[in-house]
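Protocol step 6 of 9: fold each sequence in the batch and record its structure tokens directly after the sequence line. For illustration, a two-sequence batch is reproduced in full.

Sequence one:
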Amino acid sequence: MPAPVPSPRWLAVAREIGWGRLALTALIVLVMSALCVVAGRWQYGRYVTKADAIEAYDAAQAHDVADVEEVAGSGDELADGAEWRAVTVTGVIDPDSVVALRNRPVDSTAAYQYLAWMSLDDGTAVLVNLGWAPVPSEDETEAALADALPQGEVTLTGTLRRFEEDDGKRDAGATRIVPAQVDDPGTDSIVPGYVIASDGCAGLCGDDGPLDEVPLPTLSLGPHLSYAWQWWAFSLLVPVGAWLLTKRDLELKRDPSGARPAPAKPRRRRHPSDEEIEDAL
């Protein structure tokens, strides 16, 4: 009768740990590693989005100031490379369209920003962010703004931005910079973006005006790239940690006391005595 073939050592160890335990550990490792990879891809996606925004900003700012009609393009979306361009708008501000944009703090100050339509010579309407004022003075600001709005045609300079995504709210005031949350401009011809007024906001900003200029958002890459690498590193560390825990559990299973065997001391080599050397000769 042939001698039984011994099982491989890894198979014997797997049986000792238990197939159910190994299957559960493998499942947990796969799920956690996958979640770490997904989280890393999400952080990397945010990094790419911000990097593209900074690149687009730098490219737009390299252009000279131009009329908004020349830059924005036609259609429902801004032309490629139009966002962040410095533009001029020449038209008439509609005083009845002024609306407060709520929940927009500026430099950690609770503030309202004020939006209004400007009508151009060709009948096109442009949504303009005129400026901001602290919340406590809302009533006074609206009254002062109504008195300070320039009459007739005015030219202002600003930065062209894409419309924000509509959140569907239709309460008093606006919560997103989107045409649907501002009064009807009375025309179907609308520039597919809004302008953040600067350079005095046509006399509405500064020491003599009721508003202050809305600062452009700070563009920064942030820590997203480092976070992505951390999540991906975690995905590699998960199986290592699972292996160490499984190894420790196996040691406890073999010795429930948890005591680790002391390493064997090496035997010191004994040198022969003089008598043993003489006998050998």
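Sequence two, same batch, same settings:
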Amino acid sequence: MAGHSKWANIQHRKKAQDAKRGKVFTRINRELTIAAREGGGDPDSNPRLRLAIEKANAANMPKDNVERAIKKATGELEGVSYEEITYEGYAAGGVAVLVECVTDNTNRTVGEVRHAFSKHGGNLGTDGSVNYLFNRLGVLSYAPGSDEEQIMDAALEAGADDVLVEDDGSIEVITSFQDYLSVVEAMKAAELKPDNAEITMRATTEVEVSVEDGQKLLNFLDFLEDLDDTQNVYSNADIPAEAYE
């Protein structure tokens, strides 16, 4: 069986995001808008907004853009009204897929998502059809060759839920959604800044796929990522590292 690697998946997504810097800014802008609209414009009392600002800083988004998005959300400037919606379905081979979208036109968005599923041999499902297979949590990722003992000691002291060492030597620190920011800050303070850190939806059980099916699935997931209203795409596929090559 081909080797499987979460680190390969992370690198694949980062390369795709770097190639679409403008779209990354659009997604962060929408996240800033929704976070500020729901919880107010003060990041000290709004954890979701604080997380969105962290994303903006990591992507080198101009400070003026961040402040403008927050002001539009809080009514200080005129802005667009966005709605969050999650679509659930299955890709070919029974792989569960979640597509988180932020849109100002739900009819347009559902049409585009439904077309993507049918075009790639999948099926769009009903609310709750696959969501139960995923948990929202924080993941801090370290490249193969990182100091396992140091990371484990610091992570557990910071309040992380678990530390996983993958077959390829990469390391994942798992946190609850609520503790994510405090754990990231503690790891940085310990001079153990992660190579990648995010709030994500992680499947409770995974479906192994072949290299060929993995390549087809990646094409489908990339297609979904490219839709204008897409924020995040998740699946429960365990994709072989060779599929990313």
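Proceed to step 7 once all outputs are recorded. Observation for sequence two: The chain has three domains: 6-73, 84-131+206-244, 133-203.
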